[in-house]
Amino acid sequence: MYTYRKIKKDTQIILVLVITKPELKLINFCTVIRAKYMWKSQIIREKKPYTPEKLNKLKSKYQEYLIKTIQESNIALVDISSGEIIRPNQKVEVLDQFNGPLPF
Fold it and tell me: At 102, phi and psi to the nearest 5?
């Protein structure tokens, strides 16, 4: 089971996955969410597709940043709709917290 929080960030209400250990399964799960979000936004904006080299570089940077956030803060919050990493020092209000399996 994994921990989720419903948070309020600025005026948005976001469902985030709480990560406290850099588990490979969770790192890959968050990377897939981020890649899917980037792919969708690329199509919507009619941007030129990323090259495989660029995608690999972005994947590595994302994973490094996620691991670094977990190591420095002992926690990372990841928006499950976009893969955005929300640092714990950002102003957020926790509305609800619950445990459950990964969504897919």
Answer: -65, 145
Query: Which is more confident, 103 or 76?
Result: 76
**Residue type for 71, please?**
Q
* Cα Rg of the chain (Å, integer): 14
CB 5 within 8 A of CB 33: no
pLDDT band, residue 71 (cuts 50/70/90): very high
Give me the DSSP letters along 32-98.
HHHHHHHHHHHHHTTPPPPPHHHHHHHHHHHHHHHHHHHHHHS-EEEETTT--EE-TTS--EEEEEE
Q: How far apart are CA 46 and CA 91, in angstroms?
A: 33
Of 25, 56, 24, nearest in space to 38 by CA: 56
